[in-house]
Amino acid sequence: MRLSILDQSPISTNQTSYDALNGSMKLAQAGEVLGYTRYWIAEHHDLPGLACSSPEVMLSYIGANTNRIRIGSGAVLLPHYRPYKVAEVFNTLATLFPKRIDIGIGRAPGGSAEATNALSNNYLQKVWNLPALVKDLLHFINDDFPRDHEYSKISASPIPENPPVPWLLGTSKKSALLAAENGMPYAFGHFMSDNDGVAIIREYIDAFKPRKEEQTPQVIVTVSAICGETTEKAEEIAASFLIWTLQKEKGEGKYGVPSIKEAMQYKLTEKEKESLEKIRQNMIIGNPHEMKQKLFELQTKYRADEIMINTITYSLTDRIQSYKLIAKEVF
Fold it and tell me: Where is the Luciferase-like domain positioned along the sequence (predicted)?
């Protein structure tokens, strides 16, 4: 099984944004040593507790401090940007870090309505126009616009010997079919979806249209997971993330991921207990043996080529240890 890392660069209550971003670099380094296939970092805007608003900047930093692991965006939020500029940025990264760059594409706003308005005009119109934006981005990356196209005379320089690999990220049939139509690999966000992911992946595979003869459907399924030496330890570590998720839903949690002690002292209402159970349904929490079993079950269920793991804990040590325990058990 191939395993990868999705990092949202969380800020804990005892941290600064610098601590969180530097911790992301250390996580990528650990992932490389442990044998993870790729490391992706997410894009968020003005969301308390999440430090990365610019994946491309972080990928430069992380690429310079790693050697082999594939690195990419999970995702760059395309409706905010012009495809030409996105292609230039990721072509530059692919030139600096050959055969290592992925460009994950998403359509979510990644922040509040106010942040969205500050980033781009007519965001909803651009979401509606996402299929055209994706096609333009692919043409810029592959430098293959038709001769009669308005952009045929320009290139997204520099042109790397090995272009960045584009992935479409999503949680819906619509995103899956868009990926299939364009012959793109697809990453399904199991950890943030209530939709029937199995049916969505099946439709993607059935509808896949390769851009080149050698292309075949590729599927990553992203799951939220926390592993501890024992099930009890994993549950204890996971408390911080679970309570923080509840706090964010209530408009709280602006100071970041609470400590385990703070999480344990949080007084839950009956409604919050129900919410916690719903959150846990999309997570895997357990010891290494339990984790391996559930990850393989998930891979089989989705017919996934790869599982990408998102882990948020209060302590960076616990977060890296979680990935380490999983790698030791699975690889």
Answer: 1-299
CA–CA dist 136, 139 (Å, integer): 5
Three-state DSSP at 147 gives coil
Q: Give per-residue burial for 97-120: e unless 16+ CB within 10 Å, then b.
A: beebbbbbbbbbbbbeeebbeebb
Integer Rg of the chain from CA:
20
Residue 304 φ/ψ, nearest 5 degrees: -85, 145
Question: Going from the N-terminus, what domains does the chain have, and what CATH number goes with each?
Answer: 2-230+285-330 (3.20.20.30)
User: Is the pTM higher than 0.90?
Assistant: yes
For residue 96 the two structure tokens come to: 């600096």
Task: Please identify which residue in the block is written with the tokens 């099946």.
Answer: 202
DSSP 8-state secondary structure symbol assigned to residue 225: E
Q: Give yes or no for a contact between 310 and 245, defined as CB atoms under 8 angstroms apart.
A: no
The residues near 17 (Cβ < 8 Å, ≥ 6 apart) are: 11, 51
C-beta separation of 48 from 117 below 8 A: no
C-beta of residue 41 within 8 angstroms of C-beta of residue 24? yes
pLDDT (tens digit, 9 = 90+) per residue, 262-278?
999 999 999 999 999 99
User: pLDDT by residue (tens digit) across 92-112?
Assistant: 999 999 999 999 999 999 999
**Alpha carbon distances (Å) from 61 to 191, 210, 303:** 27, 33, 34
- Residue 78 is encoded by which pair of tokens? 């395309």
Distance from the first to the final alpha carbon of the chain: 8
